[in-house]
Amino acid sequence: MEAVLDLLAEGSTIEALSIEAIAARAGVGKATIYRRWSGKDALMRDALSRLKGVLAQPAGRSLREDLVLLVGAVGRHIDPRAAKIMPCLVPEVHRSPDHFQVYQSVIEPRRQLMREVLRRGVRSGELRADLDIEVAMALLTGPMLVQRMLRWNAELDEESLPGRIVDGVLDGIRAR
Description:
Order of helices and strands: HHHHHHHHH
Largest sheet: none
Distance between the termini: 48 Å
Radius of gyration: 18 Å
CATH superfamily of the largest domain: Tetracycline Repressor, domain 2
Helix content: 55-70%
Number of strands: 0
Low-confidence stretches: none
CATH class of the largest domain: Mainly Alpha
Number of domains: 2
Strand content: under 5%
CATH architecture of the largest domain: Orthogonal Bundle
């Protein structure tokens, strides 16, 4: 997985990556890779999952706190290679249905966690009963992703931004 991430960070595209190149970079034979992964897509999924880091675990005490935690994790990567890799993956995800599926398999657990938090808010009566969960997730994650990936507004403080986003969205989706 480290070899995959190194190659991507150095500018290799997903299309150009081969099991041969990955094995050579890792200093192992192709058979070693195939013993652990069924192919390049499975290896890519695991490598990108590692790049995304450990899934944030909401405490479940407060809807707002849980949403701030999850929004704060959007686009945040501990691995410095992510800053080079993630923006380059966007065009590839759009061009290839296979790459789109790999990307979806990496981020779906994160989306599912946010869905669960929002559904809990609906069940508890904190959020509107008619809440469109998918649109609410887009409203919560979109601004953070744009700021982290594009550095859209240098004036925004990234430490306070997740709370500001959550507060702004909650104003529109709270039960009245």
